[in-house]
Design goal:
By secondary structure, this protein is an alpha/beta fold. 52% of the residues lie in helices and 13% in strands. The chain has 13 helices and eight strands. Helix 5 packs parallel to helix 6 and helix 6 crosses helix 7. The structure holds flavin-adenine dinucleotide. Flavin-adenine dinucleotide (FAD) binds next to strand 4, strand 7 and helix 12.
Length: 318
C-alpha cells in the first residue's frame, strides 16, 4: 500500500512542487543523487573510477512537455558527452527517451536520439537507454532497434524489466543480435495485465533472464572493454544478494569469464556488495544520477524500501 502511494506521488506534479522546496528533502536526496551540477557528478564519477568502479551518468529529467524542452535535453546530453571526451573520463550515460520527446512525438525523439548517438559513438561513449513504464516499452524498443540497425549497435544498449510478462520474448528477440542488455526488476507500478503481480515471479523471471543473457555472452565472447567504457552484453542490475549470487553461480557453472558480465547498482545503495564484487574481480558499474530534477527518481527509491522513508523523515528533525 505504502509503495503504491509513493509510486503515485513520484509522478504527481503537485507533490514534486511541494517536496522540492523542502530543505530536508534536498539533504536526504543527496544520499541517492550525486549533486545538482555536472561538475559535482563528474567529481563523484572520478572518485568511483579511481577505485576501479565503472559508471553511467544520468542527467535527471523525464516527460518533457514541449519540443523546445526535448531539444534542450538532447543538447544537454551531447554537452555531457563532449565534457567526458574532453576530460578523458570513460563513463557511460543513461538516458530516458521521454526526456528527449518520446511522449510528445516519436519523430522528435528519433531525431534527438540520432544526434546523441552520432556524438556518442564518435567519442566512444556508451549510451544506455533506460526503460520507463510499460506504456513506453514498445516505442522504446522500436527506437532502440532503429538506432542499432543504423550502425550504432556497439555504443548503445537497452534495459529489460523482469516484472513484465513480455520480457522473456523481448530478450530472445534482442539475443538474435549481440545486443547489450541491462536486466533490472522494474521500478514502476504496472497493471496485472502486463506484469507479474508477485515479487517471487519477478525474481524468478530475473534469474531466468540472467541465464539467457549469460549464455549469449559466452556464445559471442562478449567482454567489458579494458577501460570500462563499453560494457559486456549482460548487465545484472540489482541490489538483491540472492539475484547476484544466482548470476555468480550460473556464470561459474557455464564457465563464463568474469569480464563477460557486469553488475550494476545505484549510487548510494549497497556499497558493501559493490566493493565485494569488485574485489572478486567482477566489473561493477554504478548509476550516478545528478541534476535539479531529482524528485521522481528520489521518490522511486523511497518506494523500493520503506526504511528509506524513515531515513527521509528523520532528516526532518535534524
Ligand atoms: C543500475 C540500475 C539501473 C536501473 N535502471 C532501471 C530502468 O531503466 N528502468 C527501471 O524500471 N528500473 C531501473 N532500475 C531500478 C530497478 O528496476 C529496481 O527498482 C531497483 O533496483 C530495486 O530492485 P532490486 O533489484 O535492487 O531488488 P529489491 O528486491 O527491490 O531489493 C533488494 C535489496 O536491495 C536493497 N535495496 C533495493 N532498493 C533499495 C533502495 N532504494 N534503497 C536502499 N536499499 C535498497 C535492499 O537491501 C533490498 O532488500 C535500475 C536499477 C539499477 C541498479
Amino acid at each position: 500500500m505504502l509503495r503504491l502511494v509513493l509510486t503515485y506521488l513520484s509522478q504527481a506534479a503537485w507533490a514534486r512542487r511541494i517536496v522540492q522546496g523542502w530543505g530536508f528533502a534536498n539533504r536526504t536526496a543527496a544520499r541517492f543523487v550525486a549533486g545538482e551540477t555536472l561538475d559535482e557528478a563528474i567529481t563523484v564519477v572520478k572518485d568511483l573510477n579511481s577505485r576501479g568502479i565503472y559508471t553511467t551518468l544520468d542527467h535527471l529529467g523525464e516527460n518533457v512537455t514541449s519540443r523546445e524542452e526535448a531539444i534542450l535535453a538532447a543538447d544537454e546530453i551531447i554537452m555531457i558527452i563532449n565534457r567526458l571526451v574532453d576530460e578523458g573520463v570513460p563513463s557511460g550515460i543513461s538516458i530516458k527517451l521521454s526526456q528527449i520527446g518520446l511522449v510528445l512525438d516519436p519523430e522528435i525523439c528519433r531525431e534527438n536520439l540520432f544526434r546523441i548517438m552520432e556524438s556518442a559513438c564518435e567519442g566512444n561513449i556508451f549510451i544506455r537507454i533506460d526503460m520507463e513504464d510499460s506504456s513506453l516499452t514498445q516505442a522504446t524498443l522500436d527506437l532502440f532497434n532503429s538506432v542499432r540497425s543504423e550502425g550504432f549497435e556497439n555504443c548503445t544498449g537497452i534495459v529489460i524489466q523482469s516484472s513484465l510478462l513480455r520480457s522473456q520474448d523481448d530478450i530472445k528477440d534482442l539475443m538474435s543480435g549481440s545486443c547489450k542488455v541491462r536486466i533490472c526488476k522494474g521500478a514502476y507500478k504496472e497493471p496485472s495485465t502486463v506484469a507479474f503481480p508477485k515479487k517471487k515471479s519477478v525474481d524468478e523471471n530475473f534469474d531466468r533472464s540472467t541465464e539467457l543473457l549469460l549464455d549469449r555472452s559466452l556464445e559471442i565472447g562478449s567482454s567489458v572493454s579494458p577501460d570500462g567504457s563499453i560494457p559486456p552484453l549482460p548487465a545484472i542490475a540489482t541490489h538483491d544478494q540472492v539475484r547476484v549470487d544466482h548470476a555468480l553461480n550460473y556464470a561459474d557453472q557455464i564457465g563464463l569469464d568474469k569480464r563477460g558480465l557486469e553488475f550494476q547498482m545505484l549510487f548510494g545503495i549497497r556499497e558493501d556488495i559493490q566493493v565485494s564484487l569488485h574485489d572478486q574481480g567482477y566489473a561493477v558499474r554504478v548509476y550516478v544520477p545528478y541534476g535539479s530534477e531529482w524528485y521522481p527518481y528520489f521518490v522511486r527509491r523511497l518506494a523500493e524500501r520503506p526504511a528509506n522513508l524513515w531515513f527521509f523523515l528523520s532528516n526532518f528533525f535534524r
